[in-house]
Design brief:
The complex is a heterodimer of chains A (349) and B (325). Chain A has 349 residues and is α+β, with helices and mostly antiparallel strands. Chain A folds into two domains: 3-231, 3-Layer(aba) Sandwich (Rossmann fold), CATH 3.40.50; 242-346, OB fold (Dihydrolipoamide Acetyltransferase, E2P) (Beta Barrel), CATH 2.40.50.140. Chain A is 24% helix and 36% strand. In chain A, the strands form four sheets. Chain A has a six-stranded mixed sheet with strand order 6-7-8-3-9-10, sandwiched between helices. Chain A has a five-stranded antiparallel sheet with strand order 13-12-11-14-20. In chain A, a hairpin with a 6-residue loop joins strand 17 and strand 18. In chain A, helix 2 (91-100) runs parallel beside helix 4. The two termini of chain A are 42 Å apart. By secondary structure, chain B is mainly alpha-helical. Chain B has one domain: MetI-like fold. Chain B contains 15 helices and no strands. The longest helix of chain B is centred in the middle third of the chain and has 34 residues, at 95-128. The A-B interface holds A 49-51, 70-78, 80, 82, 84-88, 97-98, 101-102, 135-141, 146, 149-150, 152-153, 167-168, 170-171 and B 1, 3, 210-211, 213-221, 224, 228-229, 232-233, 318, 320-325. Chain A: It holds the Pfam family TOBE_3.
C-alpha cells in the first residue's frame, strides 16, 4: 500500500514540528524516519496514523484521502515505543482485541479469532506466553506482542514509533534483524521512527533524515551515508571530523594553512570540511595537507583510534581518527594527514 | 510515560494530588518533599531510639487513639444497647427510623450515582485533554471541600427558597425542591462531588492516553475504548472514590440540615434523626441510629483498606523481566 504526504504543516504553539513535509512511500517498503528528538519524525508518524492532525497539507493512503477518517477507520497498525499493551488483559486478549472490537457484521466467530491469534503468536514466536499478563513479560517480549496485536487487524500499513527505543542494546540488535526478516515474510508497507542511525541503516530499505521539522535527505542507507546531502546529514549519520575552513576561489584553507584539496564547487566563504574518521590518510610528518601530534591511541579489533592535536588551525584543534593497524601509531608521534574523501558545506551561522 | 512513577499510596493520594496538580489553592510547593524527608529522618531516629522512649511514644499514640477514637465508638454501641437488644431493634423499627434509613439510602444512591458519572467525565476531561481553563476546572472541583457544608446548604436555600431566585417560579409551577428529597439530594451531590473526580485524576494522569490510542488504532470506537480499556484500568480507583463518596453522602449533616426542613418521617436523614432523638432524650433510639452510621464507617474502613491494597498492586511498577540473551 502506498502512502503520500503532501505539504504537511504542524505547529505546537509557535514551534513548527513539521514544516512543509512531502513524502512518498511505495508498496512494500520498509522506511525509516531518522532524526534527533524534536525533528518531527514521531509527529509525522502520528499524523499518518490519525493520532494527530496537521494544520495544513494532505495525507493519502492508496490514493484515498486519509485525513477525512479517524484513526479507528484507517486500518493502520501502530506500535508504540512503550508498547501500550492493555495491562488488564492477557497476551492472548491483547492480540485478539482488534478482532473483537470489529463491527458485528464483519466480526469473525470465536474459533476463527482464536486461530488467528494463535497464528500471530506463532509468527512472533511467543505462543507459549498466551495466558500471561503484560507485566509478566520482558521488554522485548512486550514489543513483539505489541507488533502481533497491530498485525491482527491486517493493517494496510504498519507504523512503528521508536519500536526498540526502550530496550537494552543487545535485545535491540536481535529485534532489528527479526523485524527485517518479518518484513521480508509479510511485506506490509512499514514506516518506523528512530533516532538511532545504526538501526535505520541496518533495517530500512530507504531512510528519511529529518531535522527541525524538515526532510533533509531521502535515500537508500548507502546514499545517505556516502553522499550526505547536507551538513546536518553528514554530521548526524556516521562519525565525522568537522573542521572550520575558509573557501576562496577554489582553494581551501584551515586557518592560515592551505589544504591541498579541491573545493569541489563549494561557494567562497566560511565553510565546514567534513571527513569520516576512517577517511583520513595517515603518512609520515610533512606529507599531506594537515599535520598533528598523536596524543593518545586506543586499539581494538582491526582499527586503532587516535586522538590527534592539529598543528596550525585555530588554537588547538583535536580530532579523532580511525586508522588500520598496519602501522601502529605512537603517542607523541607527529604525523601527516590527508583527507581521502570529504565534503565541504557552507557554514551555517 | 514513565515506568518509574513515584509511588503514591491512596492514603496520600488526595494530598499528593492537591500539591502536584497546578492548583490555584495548592499548598506551598515542596511540602511533599519536606514531609518525606522528615519522616525518613524520624524513622531512622526511631530505630536508634532506646527502648523506653520508643515504648513511651508508641503508648502515647495508642492512648491518644483510644481516648479520641475507640472510646467514643464504644460509647455509641454501649449506649445503643444499654436497654438491651430488644430495645435496640425496637428503636430501629420505629417508622421514623425506617423512614430516615430509607431516605438516607435513597439520597446516597442518587448522589453516588450522579457523582460517579460526573466524576468520571470531569477526571477524563482533566487527565486526557489539554484545554484553556483546565486549572480553573480543577480548582472548581475542589470547591465543595473548601466551603463549609452549612454554606453549601444555604446556597440552595438562596436559589430555591421562597425568597430565592427561582422560588416564585418554582412555587407557581408547584415544584418542591427545598424541604424535600430533591433539595437534600442536591446538597449531598454538591458536598460529595470531589471524591470520585479526585481519586481518578492522578490515576488517569499517570496512565496517560497510550492504551486508548492503541485501542483506537486497532479500530475500537470511543465507547468500546472506554468500556474495554479505560474503565478496567481505573476500576479500583473508581470504587475507592465511590466508597468515600458514599460514606460522606450517608453521613452528611450540615448541608442537609439546612435544606431538609426536618419534617419528621419525611425529610430527616439518619444523621439528622440522631440529633433530633438525642435532643428529645431518647438516648437508646438516638444511639441505635448512630450505631448504624458507625458500622457504616467501620465497613467503609475495611473495604477502603482492601481497595488501597488493590490500587497499590496495580500501581507498583513491577520490575521488567530481563530479556533472555
Amino acid at each position: 500500500m502506498t502512502i503520500e504526504v503532501k505539504n504537511i504543516v504542524k505547529r505546537f504553539g509557535s514551534f513548527a514540528a513539521l514544516d512543509n513535509v512531502d513524502l512518498k512511500v511505495g508498496k512494500g517498503e520498509l522506511l525509516a524516519l531518522l532524526g534527533p528528538s524534536g525533528s518531527g519524525k514521531t509527529t509525522l508518524l502520528r499524523i499518518i496514523a490519525g493520532l494527530d492532525w496537521p494544520d495544513a497539507g494532505e495525507v493519502t493512503i492508496d490514493g484515498e484521502d486519509a485525513l477525512g477518517h479517524g484513526a479507528s477507520e484507517r486500518h493502520v497498525g501502530f506500535v508504540f515505543q512503550h508498547y501500550a499493551l492493555f495491562r488488564h488483559m492477557t497476551v492472548f486478549e491483547n492480540v485478539a482485541f482488534g478482532l473483537r472490537v470489529q463491527p458485528r457484521a464483519v466480526r469473525k466467530d470465536e474459533a476463527t479469532i482464536r486461530a488467528r491469534v494463535k497464528e500471530l503468536l506463532d509468527l512472533v514466536q511467543l505462543d507459549w506466553l498466551a495466558n500471561r499478563y503484560p507485566s509478566q513479560l520482558s521488554g522485548g517480549q512486550r514489543q513483539r506482542i505489541a507488533l502481533a496485536r497491530a498485525l491482527a487487524i491486517e493493517p494496510r500499513i504498519l507504523l512503528l514509533d521508536e519500536p526498540f527505543g526502550a530496550l537494552d542494546a543487545k535485545v535491540r540488535k536481535e529485534l532489528r534483524q527479526w523485524l527485517r526478516s518479518l518484513h521480508n515474510e509479510i511485506h506490509v508497507t512499514s514506516i518506523f521512527v528512530t533516532h538511532d542511525q545504526e538501526e535505520a541503516l541496518e533495517v530500512a530499505n530507504r531512510v528519511v533524515v529529518m531535522d527541525k521539522g524538515r526532510i533533509e535527505q531521502i535515500g537508500s542507507p548507502g546514499e545517505v551515508y556516502d553522499n550526505p546531502a547536507t551538513a546536518f546529514v553528514h554530521g548526524f549519520i556516521g562519525e565525522s571530523i568537522v573542521l572550520p575552513v575558509e573557501v576562496s576561489g577554489g582553494s581551501v584553507r584551515l586557518g592560515d594553512r592551505p589544504l591541498n584539496i579541491a573545493a569541489d564547487g563549494a561557494a567562497s566563504g566560511a565553510s565546514k570540511l567534513f571527513v569520516r574518521r576512517h577517511d583520513m590518510q595517515i603518512g609520515p610528518a610533512g606529507t599531506g595537507s594537515l599535520e598533528g601530534a598523536v596524543r593518545h591511541v586506543r586499539s581494538f579489533g582491526p582499527i586503532q583510534r587516535a586522538e590527534v592535536a592539529l598543528t596550525g588551525g585555530e588554537g588547538k584543534t583535536v580530532i579523532e581518527i580511525d586508522a588500520p593497524r598496519d602501522r601502529e601509531l605512537q603517542a607523541g608521534e607527529i604525523i601527516g594527514l590527508q583527507p581521502r574523501r570529504y565534503r565541504i558545506f557552507a557554514a551555517q551561522d | 510515560m514513565s515506568t518509574q512513577t513515584t509511588f503514591v499510596t491512596p492514603a496520600t493520594r488526595l494530598q499528593a494530588y492537591s500539591s502536584t496538580a497546578d492548583l490555584a489553592i495548592s499548598p506551598p510547593s515542596g511540602r511533599d518533599a519536606s514531609t518525606r524527608a522528615r519522616s525518613a529522618v524520624a524513622s531512622k531516629d526511631l530505630r536508634s531510639e532506646p527502648g523506653p522512649i520508643r515504648f513511651i511514644i508508641i503508648a502515647l499514640a495508642i492512648s491518644f487513639l483510644t481516648i479520641f477514637v475507640v472510646l467514643p465508638l464504644l460509647v455509641v454501641f454501649a449506649s445503643a444497647f444499654s436497654k438491651g437488644i430488644t430495645a435496640y431493634f425496637a428503636a430501629l423499627a420505629e417508622p421514623e427510623a425506617l423512614s430516615a434509613i430509607r431516605l438516607t439510602l435513597l439520597v446516597a444512591a442518587i448522589s453516588v450515582g450522579l457523582n460517579l458519572v460526573f466524576g468520571v467525565i470531569a477526571a477524563w476531561a482533566i487527565a486526557k485533554f489539554e484545554f484553556p481553563g483546565k486549572t480553573f476546572l480543577i480548582t472548581l472541583i475542589d470547591l465543595p471541600f473548601s466551603v463549609s457544608p452549612v454554606i453549601s446548604g444555604l446556597v440552595f436555600v438562596l436559589l430555591f427558597g421562597a425568597q430565592g431566585y427561582w422560588g416564585t417560579w418554582l412555587q407557581a409551577h408547584n415544584v418542591q425542591i427545598l424541604f424535600a428529597v430533591p433539595g437534600i439530594a442536591l446538597a449531598t451531590i454538591f458536598v460529595t462531588f470531589p471524591f470520585v473526580a479526585r481519586s481518578l485524576i492522578p490515576l488517569m494522569q499517570e496512565q496517560g492516553t497510550q492504551e486508548e490510542e492503541a485501542a483506537i488504532s486497532l479500530g475500537a470506537s470511543g465507547l468500546q475504548t472506554f468500556f474495554r480499556v479505560t474503565l478496567p484500568n481505573i476500576k479500583w480507583g473508581l470504587l475507592y472514590g465511590v466508597l468515600l463518596c458514599n460514606a460522606r453522602a450517608m453521613g452528611e449533616f450540615g448541608a442537609v440540615s439546612v435544606v431538609s426542613g426536618h419534617i419528621r418521617g419525611e425529610t430527616n436523614t439518619m444523621p439528622l434523626l440522631v440529633e433530633i432523638l438525642y435532643n428529645e432524650y431518647q438516648f437508646v433510639a438516638s444511639f441505635a441510629i448512630a450505631s448504624l452510621l458507625a458500622m457504616l464507617a467501620l465497613i467503609t474502613l475495611v473495604v477502603k483498606t482492601v481497595l488501597e491494597q488493590r490500587l497499590d498492586e496495580g500501581q507498583t511498577p513491577r520490575d521488567e523481566l530481563r530479556d533472555e540473551p
